[in-house]
Amino acid sequence: MSKGTVVLAYSGGLDTSCILVWLKEQGYDVIAFLANIGQDEDFDSARKKAENLGAKKVFIEDLRSEFVEHFILPAVQANAVYEDRYLLGTALARPCIARRLVQIAQKEQAEFISHGATGKGNDQIRFELTSYALYSDVKVIAPWRIPEFYNRFKGRKDLMEYAQKNDIPLPITPKAPWSMDANLMHISYESGVLEDPKCSAPTDLYLMTKNPDEAPNVPDVLEIEFKNGKHGVGRIDIVENRFIGMKSRGIYETPGGTILLQAHLDIETFTMDKEVRRIKQGLGIKFSELVYNGFWYSPECDFLLHCINKSQENVEGKVQLSVYKGQVYILGRESPKSLYNEDLVSMDKQGDYDPCDASGFIRVNAVRYVRIKSRVKLEAQG
Amino acid sequence: MSKGTVVLAYSGGLDTSCILVWLKEQGYDVIAFLANIGQDEDFDSARKKAENLGAKKVFIEDLRSEFVEHFILPAVQANAVYEDRYLLGTALARPCIARRLVQIAQKEQAEFISHGATGKGNDQIRFELTSYALYSDVKVIAPWRIPEFYNRFKGRKDLMEYAQKNDIPLPITPKAPWSMDANLMHISYESGVLEDPKCSAPTDLYLMTKNPDEAPNVPDVLEIEFKNGKHGVGRIDIVENRFIGMKSRGIYETPGGTILLQAHLDIETFTMDKEVRRIKQGLGIKFSELVYNGFWYSPECDFLLHCINKSQENVEGKVQLSVYKGQVYILGRESPKSLYNEDLVSMDKQGDYDPCDASGFIRVNAVRYVRIKSRVKLEAQG
Amino acid sequence: MSKGTVVLAYSGGLDTSCILVWLKEQGYDVIAFLANIGQDEDFDSARKKAENLGAKKVFIEDLRSEFVEHFILPAVQANAVYEDRYLLGTALARPCIARRLVQIAQKEQAEFISHGATGKGNDQIRFELTSYALYSDVKVIAPWRIPEFYNRFKGRKDLMEYAQKNDIPLPITPKAPWSMDANLMHISYESGVLEDPKCSAPTDLYLMTKNPDEAPNVPDVLEIEFKNGKHGVGRIDIVENRFIGMKSRGIYETPGGTILLQAHLDIETFTMDKEVRRIKQGLGIKFSELVYNGFWYSPECDFLLHCINKSQENVEGKVQLSVYKGQVYILGRESPKSLYNEDLVSMDKQGDYDPCDASGFIRVNAVRYVRIKSRVKLEAQG
Amino acid sequence: MSKGTVVLAYSGGLDTSCILVWLKEQGYDVIAFLANIGQDEDFDSARKKAENLGAKKVFIEDLRSEFVEHFILPAVQANAVYEDRYLLGTALARPCIARRLVQIAQKEQAEFISHGATGKGNDQIRFELTSYALYSDVKVIAPWRIPEFYNRFKGRKDLMEYAQKNDIPLPITPKAPWSMDANLMHISYESGVLEDPKCSAPTDLYLMTKNPDEAPNVPDVLEIEFKNGKHGVGRIDIVENRFIGMKSRGIYETPGGTILLQAHLDIETFTMDKEVRRIKQGLGIKFSELVYNGFWYSPECDFLLHCINKSQENVEGKVQLSVYKGQVYILGRESPKSLYNEDLVSMDKQGDYDPCDASGFIRVNAVRYVRIKSRVKLEAQG
């Protein structure tokens, strides 16, 4: 008797292959789901592998344009950056994948979903909050939080042995001494040797961007697209705060996202009223925290997406920029919706502006100083 | 009969030289004050020039360490960045200069101060708000806002003619087709040919940083100091919102400030609690706006400086970084006040953390979703 | 030769009657505009008076429903309160009046508008920012900021004399020793004897609300409508911060607005997700400041109105409340869009909630404490 | 063999008496701790009761002045109000009690603490976050989250039976059909018949405040103190958002707190710069959320307390107010630190203020409108 059907977020790697087999061992029927979000993967062989391991069904779906349109673009519009630096490449992919995961679960009348995320990270939260939001009765099996599982598989060695016993193909290439998460927007690297925050990341770690010293000696004036970044743009090394309250060290490369962010910041300030910008900046910071913490499908994220979207009505135009040796340089911008007024701002023309007005403006801004000074004087005398 | 004494913020250039003479012409005694904040200037010859033009007294004062300690460092602690990009190099210098300006005015019993800032810019506000804050009865003479002055001097040509007539030495080097403001932290470039926001800045504009393509082919591991930046770090080209409501285009180079900002962001996140960081981030954004708008010496800026200072109590440690071809790369960090816990975060150790707790954490975070779903269901049925 | 046409915001009182005549004296054609926003006024006799004083045209328009629908209701939705107490009764009326004022100016091809607001208050800003926003080329004549006017009319006595000389009917009732602004939402009282902030307001000052001790001894269960408040609800006495930087003392009575605010707060929390509420609360505070400062017709206020409006999609339902002796008591509420779940929250039922989850929730919320404690311990030992 | 020692937050009531006995039954030594925070309780008989039930030790401690000085006063300074209405009377008491609880546990070398808070409420979180913050290795026994306990005691009836069997004295007075939490600041009422949000609270529910219709017919001019409120001030009925994600309905009476809050709001605005006030208002809202959610002893709450404390440096003075029939009326205020300037604000005097400055102030504030209008015009034409 089956305990029911589980849709497993399957990556094709060792961990989720073992989980697939283990779930079957526990008495579940397993449907494997693998999303194509632009990672470097042999999807055909992943399908075969899952079938061989006993998956009842295997879904492999191309979510790349959905990922770009519905997740990356809103984040660019929000200028979404977590803790001033991280562009949220993984955090944006998770709700995209999890959404499809629970859609499949609902279609296939599966009560359960499962994933291979650890019990200490953000991804478990992102997967599961999305799942609860879209399929409120779903039951989650998170093996890395189940004592029978994590006590049995204490390290990679245990997984390897289990794989051997269960005809799970072993990885051909030796495992890098860190873990990785890749999609069309970025690659993140963490744990393993990277856990020591004072150790420099190895120079051969980066897969998506060239080392800036090997980058071309000629800058590119950009056509914006999400592709491998030959100029080494978008590498960061940060210690960040996980939702769960730990600090963790991550190394990220986000070439296209970095360029898009810089370009968007530029054209936004060019076309958006400054006070709207100020309010929207606060909303964007809040949005970034929510996305990082896994609340993409929450009422407040819906609300913020709506507000941010409204703020973008007039944000259009062209930004010229060059990318060179790891850096993005804005060169110029133009827009039919520009709020920049060359006559008004020009030092050489008076435009529609009476400089005398500034005297009143400044003096009125100083009115509240006066009383404070008098108080200070009184206190000094008193 | 003198109309009184004016302390003039004197730069040694054509504009303030003409203003010096014009103020005397209007019947004032003029004291010239020139601050050394690290700009490239021949201070001796500037002193002689001012004396020759009839200044009653000339004060030339070295404010460099005051500028670094009391203005730049608090800004670094605040991660102060205006509109997500501008590091406030000019905005920080203004209150430092104006503070000394009014101190001199008070000491010399001068009723008036004067400056050469235009009527459209931020600097007039920064100078004057500082002045009103510290010397509330001061009277400000801002020639570029006085019709008799600005109607008489409609362009550089009028100033040149006036200079010739009044034995004001003409600038030897031809004027760059833009205006500049330099100090030890940064140089800003604006107006003139830069007023067209779609035109790229000339490559020979930059004086403080090397072009990245001429930068050394070997990165430097950094010793942090405010010096010329041979790696081309810290160049930006932005359209920003002036306090006065106009958008203006500015090009900035801030090599040391950029490195310091990156280093500080890193060590701060490493040593500061995440929720304190979140609150402090908001205060830092507010602080940046205030500094940009000229409110350094305001009650609210005092308050924020105090709060931000408190937040820095445990922010200490070392950041290793490399600078190469226009970019700063963080390599590693260590701190006696680190809140990073390698055991706790490690994927390979369990540390003091029970992964099962995460299940409850996630489910409780999803509690409020449930009711919303039910409502949605009811509405769909209704 | 006329200097042009002015549309004057005419109140029917002594000040604006004098201004009307004075404007004519200065060579302008004057159109008088008087808005009915629910104040107690004999509009027919005001029309005759303005005609007799030489107004070229007189517009008297009923803006009451526009005021309620387009200004008061959005403010209620925003829970708009300035500095935690003032419900913005005057601030909301100003853009409503000024909008019509400039519409008339445009229709009548008048280049000028004028008003009787003082040079120290908020109303001048509210009138004029609205006017510049909607009719950017308009020219404003603000007599109380024109030296020839305010030096000539230094007090009420001068106005009375001028009125007598110019056949301006003198007020029949003696002037109250304070100034008032009334509309259907509220009456404000300020200046005169109220300027001493430690003096209690006279008990016979209030016109809109009964003294609570004379209020009925039986509470009313409410039907919400903007009418005179017989229960004495909504009186406040505050010192507030004007936009212009002064603190001023105001006494307000806003019976209907107070009841609506309480009712709206109640039903909003009942039907709105808590995190949406939190974001929206911040937007509402910003909105209140903008309205107070006169920025109703600004891009940022537009943006906020849009966002706040979005947040109200599910805010509907009925609130039962009683009003008694100056106070509003919420009794109960119900809503088809309620997010309140009696089963879930009940102490007597378990509902769809596993109390064990709370243990994990709490422990994960405490994860970041651990490291801080260790640091503190280390420091104590060190 | 004892499993160890538990310090139990003991209230003297049925629930915690049963928990005391149950904990002994489970093999623990139990120390009972009862805090006097101003609730109406016979502490002597509570002590005897706990001793009779087998408590190894009983600590009854008077925390009233600590509660007032270290918890209530900072909250008043913060103008702490949760979701615009709740004055946090229970939320403030919890960390005060829990702090002493873990101090006793540490002194008595007890590994465990226990409390009678339910698994759905905020109090469990407040107790436990405080405990983890101050005693990071403490182990928490929360019976209402332990299946063996809550499945055994499904309702009051089960507790009563258990009491009878175990010689636990039964409550003499019949239980009110709701639960209560009282301290010197407030009483809260929730659950039971109050769980239906549309049902009015019974008029005889309130214990701390008189019904306004029975309140004296003469107002009191106030001397501020935390005592029973004979004027019926401070009653609210709200639906609020628990940290745990549920909405719950609470009825509160906080007479003294309400008066203090109104008085503090008044004197604060009178003596504090308006922009400091604005920043501090945001910090106070954040502070209120943290206190509500149980984060009193968190790094961010420490930080906020420090900042808010700084903001209060000049907040001093006297507020005259009257309380009458459920409402607080501010009558006047005075302060040696007042920033109110009667001359400056007066309509009858010009003071140190040039009304002409306001023209420039307003026009500069409208500068950014101009460009937007042109864009709109262009779009209309285009």
UniProtKB/TrEMBL annotation, chains A, B, C, D:
<dbReference type="Pfam" id="PF20979">
    <property type="entry name" value="Arginosuc_syn_C"/>
</dbReference>
<feature type="domain" description="Arginosuccinate synthase-like N-terminal">
    <location>
        <begin position="6"/>
        <end position="169"/>
    </location>
</feature>
<keyword id="KW-0028">Amino-acid biosynthesis</keyword>
<keyword id="KW-0436">Ligase</keyword>
<comment type="pathway">
    <text>Amino-acid biosynthesis; L-arginine biosynthesis; L-arginine from L-ornithine and carbamoyl phosphate: step 2/3.</text>
</comment>
<protein>
    <recommendedName>
        <fullName>Argininosuccinate synthase</fullName>
        <ecNumber>6.3.4.5</ecNumber>
    </recommendedName>
</protein>
<dbReference type="GO" id="GO:0000053">
    <property type="term" value="P:argininosuccinate metabolic process"/>
</dbReference>
<comment type="pathway">
    <text>Nitrogen metabolism; urea cycle; (N(omega)-L-arginino)succinate from L-aspartate and L-citrulline: step 1/1.</text>
</comment>
<feature type="domain" description="Arginosuccinate synthase C-terminal">
    <location>
        <begin position="229"/>
        <end position="368"/>
    </location>
</feature>
<dbReference type="InterPro" id="IPR048267">
    <property type="entry name" value="Arginosuc_syn_N"/>
</dbReference>
<dbReference type="GO" id="GO:0005737">
    <property type="term" value="C:cytoplasm"/>
</dbReference>
<keyword id="KW-0835">Urea cycle</keyword>
<comment type="subunit">
    <text>Homotetramer.</text>
</comment>
<dbReference type="InterPro" id="IPR018223">
    <property type="entry name" value="Arginosuc_synth_CS"/>
</dbReference>
<keyword id="KW-0055">Arginine biosynthesis</keyword>
<keyword id="KW-0067">ATP-binding</keyword>
<dbReference type="InterPro" id="IPR048268">
    <property type="entry name" value="Arginosuc_syn_C"/>
</dbReference>
<dbReference type="Pfam" id="PF00764">
    <property type="entry name" value="Arginosuc_synth"/>
</dbReference>
<keyword id="KW-0547">Nucleotide-binding</keyword>
<dbReference type="GO" id="GO:0006526">
    <property type="term" value="P:L-arginine biosynthetic process"/>
</dbReference>
<dbReference type="InterPro" id="IPR024074">
    <property type="entry name" value="AS_cat/multimer_dom_body"/>
</dbReference>
<dbReference type="GO" id="GO:0004055">
    <property type="term" value="F:argininosuccinate synthase activity"/>
</dbReference>
<dbReference type="GO" id="GO:0000050">
    <property type="term" value="P:urea cycle"/>
</dbReference>
<dbReference type="GO" id="GO:0005524">
    <property type="term" value="F:ATP binding"/>
</dbReference>
<dbReference type="InterPro" id="IPR001518">
    <property type="entry name" value="Arginosuc_synth"/>
</dbReference>
<dbReference type="InterPro" id="IPR023434">
    <property type="entry name" value="Arginosuc_synth_type_1_subfam"/>
</dbReference>
<dbReference type="InterPro" id="IPR014729">
    <property type="entry name" value="Rossmann-like_a/b/a_fold"/>
</dbReference>
